[in-house]
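Support request, please re-run this one:
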Amino acid sequence: MSKKEAVIRQVHGAIEHIYKGEFECAITLAGAAEGQSSHQNKATLFAELKVRVPPEFKDEKQWIARLNAVRDWLKHPTPQYGDEWTISEYDAVIMTIRALSKFQWEHRQSTERIEAFLDWCRERGYPSRSPKH
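Re-run finished. Output below.
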C-alpha cells in the first residue's frame, strides 16, 4: 500500500460515511487523509479558509484552531470543548473537501467517486473546490 493509495481509500471512505450520515467517521478519515499530504499549495480549500479570518476571531491562529476543532475533538483529549459536540454534515463535507483538494493538487488526479462527490456538493450548495490543472 502506498501513501497515495491510503489517501484515496480514506477519502473514498469519508465520502461513503457522509452519504450514510456518519459524520464523525467521515471527519476522522478525511483528517487522516489530509494529514498524509505535505502539499501546501495555496489553491487548496484549507489554504483558502485560513486566510479568510472572520472578524470574531482575533487572529489566524485562533481561526485555524476553530477550523480544526471538530477533528481535534474526535482525535485528542479536548477538555476545553466538553464531552459532547454536535457534528454536522457541513463539518464532514468541509473536512473531506480539504483532504481531497490536497490530494488533487499533490497527485494531479482525481477519481470518479471524488468527482461524483463534488457534483453532490455543488447540488447542495457546498463549496466544491475541484482544482483544475
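The chain has seven helices and no strands. The radius of gyration is 14 Å.
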